[in-house]
Design a protein that fits this description.
The chain is built from four helices and four strands. It is mostly helical and 132 residues long. It has a two-stranded antiparallel ribbon. The longest helix is centred in the middle third of the chain and has 13 residues. It is globular and about 45 Å long. 28% of the residues are buried. It binds magnesium ion (MG).
């Protein structure tokens, strides 16, 4: 369904994944060197999952689990950037435009600060937004 013109929508997403040994850590669309990685289907990028859910929510298009069921083997190990790009394409198809996203990552380790700008740039790239 096309969105009503001149309406502004906000979506909120939330996700939790556990850190585990023997996994790569993908967070915010980048690979972060760390002793552990996130456990889950796809690359388990919890940050991109939350953003994807927020965007899907803003256009009332369900949630990430409906679009990319964990039970579907084709999403095993898949880059979560694909999920985010898909959600953004649905906004565009509905006649909408993403103006801004915000993301909070809660973890004790690794330190996110050193990767903050790279993550911002990567998310901006995936959503075709300016980093600011
Ligand atoms: Mg997830």
């Amino acid at each position: 369904a096309r969105l009503r013109t001149r309406s502004t929508r906000t979506g909120m997403g939330f996700d939790v994944h556990r850190l585990a040994d023997g996994e790569e850590l993908w967070l915010g669309g980048i690979r972060i060197p760390h002793a552990q990685g996130l456990l889950g289907h796809s690359d388990a990028d919890v940050a991109l999952h939350a953003l994807t859910d927020a965007i899907l929510g803003a256009i009332a298009a369900g949630d990430i689990g409906q679009h990319f069921p964990p039970s579907d083997l084709q999403w095993r190990g898949a880059p979560s950037s694909r999920f985010l790009e898909h959600a953004a394409s649905l906004v565009q198809a509905a006649g909408g435009r993403i103006e801004h996203v915000d993301l909070t990552i809660i973890c004790e380790a690794p330190k996110i600060g050193p990767y903050r700008e790279v993550i911002r740039a990567r998310i901006a790239e995936l959503l075709q937004l300016a980093p600011d």
